[in-house]
Amino acid sequence: MANIQKRETKSGKIHFRVQISLKGYPKQTATFRNKTLARKWAEQTEAAIREGRHFKTAEAKKHTLNELINRYITQVIPRKKDWKKQKSQLTWWKKQLGDYLLSDITPALIAEQRDLLLEGTTNRGNKRSNSTVVRYLAALSHAFSIAMKEWGWIEDNPLRKVLKPKESRGRIRFLEKVERANLLEACKNSSNSYLYLIVVLALSTGMRYSEIINLTWADVDLIKSRITLHDTKNGEIRVVPITGLALNLLKDFEKIRNISSILLFPRQKGQNLQKPINLRTSWKKAVKEAEIKDFRFHDLRHCCASYLVMNGASSGEIAEVLGHKTLSMVKRYAHLSEAHTSKVVASMNEKIFGELNA
């Protein structure tokens, strides 16, 4: 219940001190210049406490965004794979809104900063893409979610009401038959003895660059023809089947493996053999020699997905091979299956309407 006491200062000024005592909750006090304001505060606060709203709001008034992000960076960020990038994104938010109390951070305020991000440029002077801005919003949103669910600092996540910029469909660049042959030939002739096998693995499995160069021999099972990836982007273990040329190359490669390293592709002799090789120079040289334009190593993953689609693989099968948690990332390749889909529809129509066409 609320207890309102009238008090007088030494200078003769009158004020009213309110104390709210509800069983199971800490006491709440406040002081007002007149009794009407004191009663109004008491009624609203008691109602908020009973409904479970008061203490969340009170916590939001105690902490700034600086405090939230600092705690998040200390306790949560170290558990993330891309922590460096997210730390940089959160540092940007600190610079823009760090001094604000959490209670004062509204969706409208965040939307203003979203628009600044969209209008701004990167450190390299390039305009930020919509996808980049979405990543900035996502980093802040997760920090707010943790503050809401685990720390009890806020009642709701303001990012929930902020519209995200529409992301592009995503880059799709795959090699045509001649391009693929030229690239493989250039890789085979490269001074880097690993390049050809690595590119074949990327094309045939869709594994990411980091997943391939960090492979250890313990990950490879040549008897069961598979590779087990323990450290993936989405944090889940993924088993990758190895067949055909990739399997044959791996079997030959095992015979000449460097027993001084647990890695399949360690650095060259004279360097740290427990660190993976850097293919940047040899890769760029091979692409140039193959006379292929606008092609990155990650596009080999798109090649694998595209070839799977064109050979009749379902969205679920492609997602499983590439390690996508949802089918949304696979939808970008849907148009490539038109020829396959047409054959399926034609086959179905022939079966149910064939006699009528005779």
Overview of this protein structure:
The chain is mainly alpha-helical and 358 residues long. The protein has 14 helices and six strands. The protein has helices at residues 35-50, 54-60, 65-75, 83-97, 107-119, 130-151, 177-188, 195-205, 209-213, 244-255, 280-289, 299-310, 315-322, 338-357; strands at 2-8, 14-20, 28-32, 220-221, 226-229, 238-241. The mean pLDDT is 83.
Question: What is the secondary structure topology, with strand pairs?
Answer:
Blueprint: E1 2-8, E2 14-20, E3 28-32, H1 35-50, H2 54-60, H3 65-75, H4 83-97, H5 107-119, H6 130-151, H7 177-188, H8 195-205, H9 209-213, E4 220-221, E5 226-229, E6 238-241, H10 244-255, H11 280-289, H12 299-310, H13 315-322, H14 338-357
Antiparallel strand pairs: 1-2, 2-3, 4-5, 5-6
* CATH level 3 topology of the largest domain: hpI Integrase, Chain A
**For this structure, what is the CATH class of the largest domain?**
Mainly Alpha
Mean pLDDT: 83
Note the gap between the termini: 89 Å
Q: How would a textbook summarize the main sheet?
A: 3 strands, antiparallel
Supply Rg: 30 Å
**Morphology call:** elongated
Under the CATH scheme, which architecture of the largest domain would be assigned?
A: Orthogonal Bundle
**H/E series:** EEEHHHHHHHHHEEEHHHHH
User: What portion of residues belong to β-strands?
Assistant: 5-15%
Give, in spatial order, the strands making up the sheet with the most strands: 1-2-3
Uncertain ranges: none
CATH superfamily of the largest domain: Intergrase catalytic core
What portion of residues is helical?
40-55%
**Class computed from helices, strands and strand pairing:** mainly alpha
- Please tell me the total number of domains: 3
Work out the number of β strands. Answer: 6
